[in-house]
Amino acid sequence: MSILVTGGAGFIGSHTALLLLEAGYEVVVVDNFSNSKPEVISRMESLAGQKIPLYEVDLRDEIGLSTVFENHQIEAVIHFAGLKAVGESVSNPLYYYENNIGGTITLCQVMEKYNVHKMVFSSSATVYGKPDQVPVAENVPLRSTNPYGRTKLMIEEILRDVYISNPDWSIALLRYFNPLGAHESGKIGEDPNGIPNNLMPYITQVAIGKRDELLVYGGDYETPDGTGIRDYIHVTDLAMGHLKALQRVKNVTGVEAYNLGTGTGYSVLDVVREFEKVTGVKIPYQIVERRPGDIAECYANPNKAERELGWKADKTLADMCRDAWKWQKVNPEGYSESLQKKFDSSIKN
Ligand code: NAD
Ligand code: UFG
Hints:
By secondary structure, the chain is of the alpha/beta class. The protein has a single domain (about 1-349), classed as NAD(P)-binding Rossmann-like Domain (Rossmann fold). The chain has helices spanning about 10-20, 40-50, 60-70, 85-90, 95-115, 145-165, 200-205, 235-250, 270-280, 305-310, 315-330, 340-349; strands spanning about 1-5, 25-30, 55, 75-80, 120-125, 170-175, 180, 215, 230, 230-235, 255-260, 265, 285-290, 295-300. It has a seven-stranded parallel sheet, sandwiched between helices. The chain binds nicotinamide-adenine-dinucleotide (NAD) and uridine-5'-diphosphate-4-deoxy-4-fluoro-alpha-D-galactose. Nicotinamide-adenine-dinucleotide binds near residues 7, 9, 60, 81 and 84. Pfam families: GDP_Man_Dehyd (PF16363). This is UDP-glucose 4-epimerase. Pathway: Carbohydrate metabolism; galactose metabolism. Its cofactor is NAD(+).
């Protein structure tokens, strides 16, 4: 029996697929490489010491997806595949609705056809919008402020309806807070296209000299140092949360949402200072206007995941900074194949 990982070539999917392999699961990856590169699969294979069945298939391609279920006995699906850039979702909402919601609907139809009813879904803390209070627990009213977030909200609703229609389904909705870091080997990590939107990839690109300075979006929030506060979680801890959720969906039916966060909030300047401390590299920054749509603070109440999944994040912000920096140093151009030789020699040294 295999676990199908959709979006398994992406940032979080690759780390999770690797952990599954290390835990002895058979893994099949489906990805259309719209936001990733095939190179990641070779690196995962070298880390895992085994071949990984890979299908370059778009989730909306029902025939292509059915082939995967024909060729493998799929026991459960961990569903990462989706588009995730908030700004792009505002300028191109139909692309987001079509890809994220359309892809999920086709996936559920194919799963139903092949009698597979266990799913772990990548939701997001974005479903809390601007929370009325922090730490935020799963049972507060949900809202979203952009099309990307609404795709997550709508998919959560769709999955609840799917369960109501057939109580054989077992679905975990994992609401991630802010994933950072990389695999400790330095071989796999986050590889954003163009100018990074997110804080840590931006910091590491400043550190390596690709960008001059960090722009800190807003210094006048009602937080202790005036900069935004988030719940940063190591991608390896996040990956482990999926293994725990998988164990749960294998044993009970129903739909449950879980926050995957640490429960601790750090400000932008906390992250900058920690990065400088851990790496010894100075990060020049300038405080500028707030970024539209940002909120002052958001961090998780992760108690439900600990209680019901037996999962708790245990890596520190220092671990996240150290691993993100190692990844950036070893892979200054991410997975770009032109730098493959440089990567190989730096791993040898
Ligand atoms: P990512 O872009 O690195 O990975 C997503 C993968 O899905 C990519 O490899 C992409 O090529 C693939 N994909 C997209 N649409 C597809 C389709 N129609 N068919 C097949 N493959 C498709 O993103 P990530 O950071 O690894 O995020 C994984 C999931 O977690 C996403 O659903 C994202 O919305 C969610 N999430 C991410 C964050 C974050 O900050 N990274 C936070 C909360 C939730
Ligand atoms: N920030 C900067 N400068 C930058 C980038 C970010 O100051 O160049 C600040 C932001 O203003 C915010 C904090 O750093 O205060 C974190 O910003 P990110 O862009 O890294 O993360 P967000 O919390 O804005 O959003 C992320 C994902 C969303 C997801 C959300 C909740 O990008 O997709 O977490 O999971 F919905």
